[in-house]
Amino acid sequence: MIQFRLTIMKPKKINLVAADMGYGHQRAAYPLLDLSAGEIISINNYKGISDWEREYWVKSLRSYEKISRLKKVPVIGGLVFAIMDAFQKIQPAYPHRDLSEPTTQQKYFYKVVRKGLGRGLVESLNSSGLPFVTTFFVAAYIAEYHDYQGDIYCIICDTDASRAWAPLEPKMSRVKFLLPSEKVRERFLMYGVKPENIIVSGFPLPKENVGPDRQILINDIASRVKVLDQSGLYQDKYRSLLEAITPGFSRKHDFPLTITYAVGGAGAQKEIGVTIMNRLARDIRANKMDLNLVAGNRPEVRDYFAAEMKKAGFKKGQGVSIIYNEDKIAYFRKFNECLHDTDILWTKPSELSFYCALGLPIIISSPVGSQEDFNRDWLLSIGAGVDSLDPEYVNEWLPDMLDSGRLARAAMDGFLNAEQMGAYNIEKIIDGK
């Protein structure tokens, strides 16, 4: 059984349910831990789970991770991944049309739910009477099909969602969906979800990086813009805006600039982090840059980074750090802490795309899957992200981006155009405020 707990002196308001698969579902759940008395219940490894259920989830996770890593294998890897991705593909948003017809993927999941997937969990939670809040669409299926007695909420973890995230029979469903934006609201209307079950809350960001009055966030971005805009071009042009957000704003910048490179839950694209380290080694050794290599909770990625650091001659405390903890919740906490000093977040466009709202410019690695294609498009559309150029030449193109003020602008565009108060909004919604 995997159940994560924190010591938080608050009464339990919700049953918080996620999938222990990758990082996305649990990262979205993490900011709500204070509502669940510090507990995230894993749909794929809960107390009392049957052997067949556990085996089903283990096989599903292994298959996904294997295919994700296969994607970089020429020809065959891309073909296998494309076949899998076709089952969860998000259709184009235009023209507006009826997209309520269930998909093959959805029918498959409902078949397993009817077999009894998650029934034991629902039965164990029913007596609580608390809202069932999940970041995983299959858990929402499970709660409704097995007649959970309380309210059911499903948090959407990407900037758009496939048909699988909506119920099989949306007009008959009582599941309430907490969406990151108005754009996704239009999508769920096309899926046939009743308007009264669609709530635009914003994606839940970590409260320790926002604060109830956003002061933590504002302090972070004030120092970040100075580092990102080393020529002062952006600050000179938008001084009135910066002073309105952070009174007493000063143009003086500090070194070093800090890049955080985050690997996905399947461990894909870890080689890019090593390329960044090697190509920026001169600036790192000169104390002009620091680099965080995020291994998450995967020991094999941590060991890979550690071996490459040693090969490059970097010792602990010499400008390159590995962000790792075997416990996911402890990892999330450590990652969120490092973001206070991060100036650039470099990652594939996963759920971390929403972290641009913290005033973090995103350098976008290649998307993995249909939902990440949409996340990338969203980042580019609001100006908060820039596509990565060839990492082999990062030592040439990154300074140009910094000199032009492009990354300072991306930081402010994310801060201004993306929702920051999602976790607080969700709490108000659940409290009925």
Could you walk me through the main structural features you see in this protein, from its secondary elements to its overall organization?
With 433 residues, this protein is α/β, with parallel strands linked by helices. The protein folds into two domains: 3-49 and 87-200, 3-Layer(aba) Sandwich (Rossmann fold), CATH 3.40.50; 207-417, Glycogen Phosphorylase B (Rossmann fold, 3-Layer(aba) Sandwich), CATH 3.40.50. The chain contains 18 helices and 13 strands. Strand 6, helix 7 (182-190) and strand 7 form a beta-alpha-beta unit. Residues 1-8 and 79-87 have low confidence and may be disordered.
CATH level-3 fold name of the largest domain: Rossmann fold
State the assembly state of the protein chains.
single chain
Would you identify the CATH H-level superfamily of the largest domain? Glycogen Phosphorylase B
List low-confidence stretches: 1-8, 79-87
**Strands, count:** 13
Rg estimate, integer Å: 22 Å
What structural class do helix, strand and pairing data support?
A: alpha/beta
How many distinct helices?
18
**Cα separation of the termini:** 35 Å
Average pLDDT level: 90
Q: Could you say how many structural domains there are in total? A: 2
CATH architecture of the largest domain: 3-Layer(aba) Sandwich
Shape: globular
Percentage of residues assigned to helices? 40-55%
CATH class of the largest domain: Alpha Beta
**Strand composition percent:** 5-15%
Sketch the major β-sheet. 7 strands, mixed
Strand order of the largest sheet: 1-3-2-4-5-6-7
